[in-house]
Specification:
Mean pLDDT: 79
Shape: extended
Radius of gyration: 29 Å
Low-confidence stretches: 1-30
Strand content: 15-25%
Distance between the termini: 62 Å
Structural class: alpha/beta
Largest sheet: 9 strands, mixed
Number of helices: 7
């Protein structure tokens, strides 16, 4: 579940609203064929959740850039990255220097992707087909950097259990209203497009969210939940023993020698952790753990060296073939 709704049931593609809808200005939807990958929605939801956690539960506005591929009227939104901003006189001002650096870094890794627009969350409920106050001015800032950007709005205020995706996407449109060019946002339809790897990842996240703290979808989460329950129970029982002992020490409770003998017997049954045998076993486990970590690092380094060698041989093999032609 992401923001209270499920993506796990998406096995192929899902299209929203069959009929074009109008935005607040009455503008009809655009004609782009937009495909959105679940990874983008998960990224936006995670961005908003982290900011909300840092703000101690208060909803915070988050912004980011959408990345993907556009061929004619076909648009595929595949990834995204976060965007820094600051509030100046009540309006949002983008950090353009940070935007340029991040866009260049992502271009080096995902050379096929290009910026297609921007995204934002909505801490408060937004009516269908409408945008937040100030979004049009913010969209103009993005349009000054990227041509005809899309705008993806994710409503993160929806309560858990909602069945519909709280997602809207808008296109840029320029209209002549009263002989004046007016910049507007037109709500567009979209489809969810997921690959096998994305479906597996989203299904795993959905199961963990559905299980909550009481259960897990994997053996590791189940084991950790069991350990947490056992430690919590042990802590409660130790406190039940500790409180009367502290009361006896302060003189608030009469001395109970029978209870003291039982506590002494219980302490004597605890394993001794300051013996030579214990130190030796602990040191051996630490060495084994470090050895496994070093072995993993060596394996990764060897694999990287092999890849570099293969690329080097391939490059020089092509050069030798070209020389042979002449």
């Amino acid at each position: 579940h992401v923001c209270g709704w499920s993506l796990a049931s998406t096995t192929g593609t899902m299209e929203t609203d069959d009929e074009p809808q109008a935005n607040a200005a009455g503008v009809k939807t655009g004609g782009l064929n937009i495909d959105i990958h679940p990874l983008v929605i998960v990224n936006i939801s995670d961005h908003g959740t982290r900011k909300k956690s840092l703000a101690k539960g208060k909803g915070v506005r988050v912004l980011g850039i959408l990345l993907g591929i556009q061929e004619g009227r076909d648009v595929e939104i595949c990834n995204s990255f976060e965007l820094d901003y600051k509030i100046v006189n009540g309006s949002i001002q983008l950090n353009k220097d940070s935007l340029e650096v991040k866009a260049e870094q992502y271009k080096k890794v995902f050379d096929k992707y290009e910026p297609l627009g921007w995204y934002s969350n909505s801490p408060d409920k937004v009516p269908l087909g409408e945008v937040l106050e100030g979004d049009l001015q913010l969209h103009k800032q993005i349009a000054a950097i990227y041509e005809n950007p899309l705008y993806l709005l994710l409503d993160t205020s929806m309560a858990p259990g909602a069945r519909e995706l709280p997602l809207q996407i808008f296109e840029s449109e320029l209209h002549i209203i009263d002989d004046t060019p007016t910049f507007t946002l037109a709500k567009s339809t979209y489809k969810l497009k997921s690959e096998d790897a994305e479906r597996i990842s989203v299904d795993q996240v959905s199961r963990l969210s559905q299980g909550g703290a009481g259960s897990g979808s994997s053996a590791l989460s189940s084991h950790l939940n069991s350990l947490n329950s056992a430690i919590t129970m042990l802590q409660k029982r130790v406190l039940q023993i500790l409180k009367p002992l502290e009361g006896m020490e302060r003189g608030e409770i009469p001395m109970d020698h029978n209870m003291l003998r039982q506590v002494q017997a219980l302490c004597n049954r605890l394993p001794t952790v300051d013996t030579t045998e214990f130190d030796g076993e602990l040191l051996e486990q630490q060495r084994d753990a470090l050895l496994v970590a070093y072995l993993g690092a060596m394996t990764k380094g060897t694999n990287t060296a092999n890849e570099v060698t293969d690329k080097y041989n391939l490059a020089f093999e092509r050069q030798s073939r070209r020389r042979g032609l002449f």
